[in-house]
Amino acid sequence: MITGFNTDVKYRGVVYHVQTEDKGTANPLIETLVYKGGEILGSRRLPYGDLVKDRSDEASITKLMEDQHKGMLLEVKKGRFEPASDRTVIEDLSLDEIVLAYLAARAAAQ
């Protein structure tokens, strides 16, 4: 069982909490939520049933979780969830979109 990831990120004096978890083999979905003071500001959901052939492959699932979690941390650090942007972001991404987001995040980090 993969427990998930929880990280507090400070951006311009505001603390955001990013939480990523696997919904399990019965519901193969990785969900990341961004909170500020208990309020959900955004989420990203990745259904992985078609991406991981063996749903008990914890290493592959953990890698997907880590990549999604790190991507959301970068978005917080870039100001996507600043108070001025009063919107909730919900995304269901295709594999191509995930790969592009990952590559963009890597390029930005270099």
Key traits:
110 residues; alpha+beta; five-stranded mixed beta sheet
Report on the structure:
The protein is of the alpha+beta class and 110 residues long. The chain has one domain (5-109). The chain contains 2 helices and 5 strands, in the order E-E-E-E-H-E-H. A 5-stranded mixed β-sheet has the order 1-2-3-4-5, with helices on one face. The longest helix has 20 residues, at 58-77. The radius of gyration is 14 Å and the shape is globular.
Task: Count helical runs.
Answer: 2
Distance between the termini: 33 Å
Order of helices and strands: EEEEHEH
Question: How much of the polypeptide forms β-strand, as a percent range?
Answer: 25-35%
Cα gyration radius (Å): 14 Å
Stretches with pLDDT under 50, minimum 5 residues: none
How many domain modules? 1
The total strand number stands at 5
- Estimated helix fraction: 25-40%
The secondary-structure class comes to alpha+beta
How would you characterize the largest beta sheet? 5 strands, mixed
* Dominant shape: globular
User: Reading side by side through the largest sheet, how are the strands ordered?
Assistant: 1-2-3-4-5
**Average pLDDT across residues?**
84
Brief write-up:
By secondary structure, this protein is an alpha+beta fold. It contains 2 helices and 5 strands.
